[in-house]
Amino acid sequence: MADASIDKLYYFQDITGIEDSDLCTAILAAHNWDLDLAASSVTSSHSSSGNITPSFSNLNSSLSSLSWNLATLPFYAVSGGIGLLRDAVGLGAWLAGGAISKSLDLIGFSPPYAGFPDSSDRPIELASPDAEAAAFVAAFEREFGSVAPRFADEGFTDALRRSQRECKLLFVYLHSPDHEDVAEFCKGCLCSAPVAEFLNENFVAWGGSIRRMEGFQTSKRLMAFHFPFCGIVKASSNEGIVLLQQIEGPKSPEQLLTILQWVVEDYTGSLVAARLAAEELRNNRLLREEQDAEYIAALEADQARERQMKEEQERLQREAAEAERKREEEEEAQEIAAREAAEKEAALARKRQEKAMSLGAEPEKGPGVTQVLIRFPTGERKERRFYSSATISSLYDYVDSLDCQKAENYVLVSNFPRTSYGSQEHCLTLEEAGLHPQASLYLEVEL
After folding, report:
1. Under a CB-based contact definition with an 8 Å cutoff, are residues 200 and 155 in contact?
2. Most buried pick, 254, 256, 263, 305, via CB within 10 A?
3. Helix (H), strand (E) at residue 193
4. Each residue's pLDDT tens digit, 417-444
5. For residue 245, what are the β-bridge partners?
6. Is 113 buried (19+), middle (13-18) or exposed (0-12) by CB count in 10 A?
7. Helix or strand (DSSP H, E) at 411
8. How far apart are CA 12 and CA 19, in angstroms?
């Protein structure tokens, strides 16, 4: 439903007081979305007390207008006269039932509602796509059992994005609770073990009821005219979708499986190849950026050293008279620097020894042991086993105990996916951090 139509729906509900969004949508559609005409057909029959429930005469007028509009549609738009007639009769019965239900509500008598989902005319409140999807999943499992496709409990757009991330196609099921073939299709076909298992393994599945806003909008987007309706879609550019296959009408499990297998064989390979190509491009770009950054850093360091050497030469020329005193000062400074360097090296050696002792003995291979490989900027590689219950800080202790590590500020990073294990993650165990049973990390120096 377009934004303009939704605005008309909200405004129509405000001026008529009818809370049932499906009933309002049907009345508007029966009047070709002419807001003034639809509103006048309802408000003209109001009683002086302000009752805004549409009368049966106006309802019959709306149904007559709807029948005329349906009858005058071109053949290609309705996809078969028999199906159209059946849908029109079903919609008329639903509208009549809605009017009766509204009247019973007004006099304080509301019969119990049953069926899946929203088979009654209970007022439908607008909900978020995620809430609507979760309600559909719960109702579907309650009605047809736990042996069913794992429908996503998120909105259609989010499910489509998840299918992209997982390199899968999106299987869409649109539920029409009033259609005579839907219940048997769900029980006998969609919820059969072979179909459910194949869908769960090869697709991201999403379902919705056409009685709800998200399901209704999706049915219009996919031009779903006949039910049961299933569609297989994939994302396209600019937030669009491509309908690869539509499956309309009742199907046996064997028929549905044949169609699904054909789609998987024909399309999944290209999706996976595109995903791998995108990842390769992204990794190459990251590698080039890292190499450029390293080159710039090295160039700046060389330029800084050259400037320092030139300044030093000029200074020595200007201060030739004080060369002897300067030499003595330099010698003293060198002695201090050497002493400090020696002290620093000794402190570093003690630190390495302490870190090595804190690690304890390297555990033997086993189910609770994690194999960790660490690569250094110099190209050197070190490998050690840790208990999976050891924390990230143990990896830093191990690095600090090695003589190949010179940098004071560094961070351990995983590459696929890129994850930085900084100070905030030090308290995590290797298993909690997703590094068990084996991990490959590289040391990234922080400049």
Report:
1. no
2. 256
3. helix 193-202
4. 889 999 899 999 999 999 999 999 999 9
5. 232
6. exposed
7. strand 410-414
8. 10
Residue 145 burial (10 A CB sphere; 0-12, 13-18, 19+): exposed
Distances (CA, A) of 193 to 151, 163, 253, 286: 15, 22, 9, 44
pLDDT tens for 294-347 read: 999 999 999 999 999 999 888 888 888 888 888 888 889 999 999 998 888 888
User: ω before 417 within 30° of 0 (cis)?
Assistant: yes
Model pLDDT for residues 353-373, shown as the tens digit of each residue: 888 888 889 999 999 999 999
CB 395 within 8 A of CB 358: no
Q: Alpha-carbon distance 369 to 362, whole Å?
A: 10
Q: How far apart are CA 426 and CA 438, in angstroms?
A: 18
Rounded to the nearest 5 percent, the helix, strand and coil shares of the chain are 55, 15, 30
Question: What does the alpha-carbon distance between residue 172 and residue 419 come to, in Å, rounded to a whole number?
Answer: 34
| Cβ-contact 399, 356 below 8 angstroms | no
- CA of residue 354 relative to chain centroid, distance: 46
CA 324-328-332 angle, 5° bins: 165
Could you give the CA distance from residue 296 to residue 300 in angstroms, rounded to a whole number? 6
Letter string b/e over residues 7-44, b meaning 16 or more CB atoms within 10 A of that residue's CB: ebbeebbeebebebbbbbbbbbbbbebeeeebbebbee
What percentage of the chain exceeds 70 in pLDDT?
77
CA pair distance 70, 92, nearest whole angstrom? 12
User: Which residues have a Cβ under 8 Å from the Cβ of 355 and sit 6 or more positions away?
Assistant: 397, 398, 400, 401
Give backbone dihedrals phi and psi of 444, rounded to 5 degrees, phi first: -110, 120
pTM reported for the whole predicted model: 0.42
Structural contact between residues 374 and 395, judged by C-beta atoms closer than 8 angstroms = yes
**In the structure, how many helices (H) and strands (E) does the chain have?**
15, 9
Tokens of 417: 């996916």
